[in-house]
Amino acid sequence: MGYLRSEEEVEAMIIEMKRKSKGKYITQAVTFSKESERQMELLKFALMHSTSFSGFGKELIAEKYESETKPQANKNSLSIYKHTEKVEKKNTGNFLL
After folding, report:
1. Could you tell me where the beta strands, DSSP code E, fall in the chain?
2. For 84-94, what is the mean pLDDT?
């Protein structure tokens, strides 16, 4: 899977998020459409399987990250997978791809 943004673009976004946010955390929201049966099922699953929705989301991201970095890892160190292919940006709204 290709990246939607370069590492430099994301670093600039994070710097801006840190600048704008108050307190200790950066919050990134997840919305669920009340009219989408699939999205309601996803929300139900997440709430049933975790005491912390935020923690559950972070673990899912960690699993995805690990699965994409593992092919480049060796026994002594983790080499970050550098994927240079850019994919076309799409406005997906609240839809799950």
Report:
1. none
2. 51
